[in-house]
Design a protein that fits this description.
With 191 residues, the protein is mainly alpha-helical. 72% of the residues lie in helices and 0% in strands.
Length: 191
């Protein structure tokens, strides 16, 4: 096994300091994009590999999180859009006994898992988000779910702020249309 050079060690240290703190946020975003934990892990892994490979192009001290989100988003577009297909549907009643038994055996939960259960969206809302076209869904998720500013999203996606505002407006309107029936079922009335 070869020894790392001083430059390689410095690169690893800088990478760890700048990038590793954003791993949870990357995974959360990847999970929302892919709707599948395995695909999200693959996407994050692909993102980390690319980020490390091109870390020399990153300007230390700038917004590492935005840089990583841009890499993740581009990886998603390049790799996952081509292979996207409707996820397999499973009847909850068939898997719930197994799920509950496995869940009961676990003693440790991740931050993501507790966050997901605390702020769980029901199937209608998740399905409505999934129905949004890719560009609109991404902006709605980053702004309304993740809480990023227009400027941060523009940096992540490498598009003008006006485009972000337009996509957000159109995405919200599409989501509103998708959720109209959802709201009626739950007794909400429109203005």
């Amino acid at each position: 096994m070869s020894q790392l050079t001083r430059d390689e060690k410095k690169k690893q240290q800088d990478f760890d300091e700048e990038i590793i703190p954003h791993m949870d946020a990357l995974y959360n975003f990847a999970l929302r994009l892919t709707s599948d934990p395995n695909d999200a892990e693959d996407l994050v892994q692909d993102t980390i590999v690319k980020a490390y490979r091109f870390f020399s192009s990153y300007e230390k001290g700038t917004n590492a999180k935005a840089w990583m989100f841009r890499i993740l988003k581009n990886s998603f577009i390049n790799n996952y859009r081509k292979n996207s297909k409707k996820p397999a549907e499973v009847d909850y009643d068939e898997v719930s006994p197994y799920y509950e038994s496995v869940r009961a055996e676990r003693t440790e939960t991740s931050d993501l898992e507790s966050l997901m259960f605390r702020e769980m969206m029901d199937d209608d809302l998740s399905n409505a988000l999934t129905q949004l076209p890719e560009d609109f869904r991404t902006v709605v998720l980053l702004c309304d779910v993740e809480g990023y500013t227009y400027e941060e999203i523009a940096n992540m996606l490498d598009v003008p702020i006006g485009t972000i505002r337009s996509r957000l407006h159109r995405g919200r309107n599409l989501l509103k249309t998708e959720l109209l029936e959802y709201a009626k079922k739950r007794g909400f009335t429109g203005d």
